[in-house]
Amino acid sequence: MTGHAPAKRPNQLFRNLNSKIASIPMILIAVGIFFGGSVWTVFYSFTNSKLLPRLSFVGFDQYERLWNTSRWIISIQNLAIYGILTLIFSLVIGFLLAALMDQKIRFENAFRTIFLYPFALSFIVTGLVWQWILNPEFGIQGIIRSLGWESFRFDPLYDPDIVIYGILIAGLWQGTGLVMCLMLAGLRGIDEDIWKAARVDGIPMWRTYLFIVIPMMRPVFITTLVIIASGIVKVYDLVVAQTSGGPGNASEVPAKYVYDYMFQAQNLGQGFAASTMMLLTVAIIIIPWAYLEFGGKKRG
């Protein structure tokens, strides 16, 4: 008995050929500028470059100096506090807002626009707005004291012990709306039959969210986590607009440290070393995400 030979599949290399050709410029830019620039930065971080790059190798001296500088240590501590709290609060608040929006409330479009609007503003604008709001003379503290509570105090931007929390407030105000929209998109992708089955089985809503819905939204949470984390590592504009790193160096962050050493102190070697440490931080975030998304077991 003879059968028909199976049709040969087209060579995978030539599938979607037009789109692959169109992506060549983007690939060249990514490799030439981003990858090439990163290698160049790491290379010159081992030199004693000052105003201009120069091939005067000093080994790990720049890194040793970096980690012995109190300003850099403060910036890392601030980034850790800001980053951990931003991840926790933005995910929790964003998900809770998305869960409320998912209840088919009235004026949903208006509320969604209001919550997302701060994300459309630049970090400089957000920083200046919250600098005014947290100003002790005419901000929240000044308004409440004018109402009779003379002992009320709320001036985080002027207190070196809590200044990073004042920056955190502004960051959450701007970024939580985006997290809410991402979470809402994930919730809207949940099959309606799952909600019906949970109601029929008498499962409380909070348990449905915690044990059924959230595990199903794993890809959304991972993507959101990467977006938030990448924004945390490069936070700069918000700090400059609100405090310029003050009081003293109390609100210093790594991105500002890099900028100041490269363009103000004219010490490229030290700036390159700090940039390399930031690059390493981004790699620590991106590589696990890429593995979870593309290297793990395929999902249906």
Automatic annotation (TrEMBL):
Domain ABC transmembrane type-1: 76-291
Topology relative to the membrane: Multi-pass membrane protein
PANTHER family: ABC TRANSPORTER PERMEASE PROTEIN
UniProt-listed CDD domains: TM_PBP2
Highest classification ranks of the organism: Bacteria, Pseudomonadati, Pseudomonadota, Alphaproteobacteria, Hyphomicrobiales
Pfam families: BPD_transp_1 (PF00528)
Name of the molecule in the record: ABC transmembrane type-1 domain-containing protein
GO biological process: transmembrane transport
GO cellular component assignments: plasma membrane
Superkingdom to which the source organism belongs: Bacteria
Organism: Ciceribacter selenitireducens ATCC BAA-1503
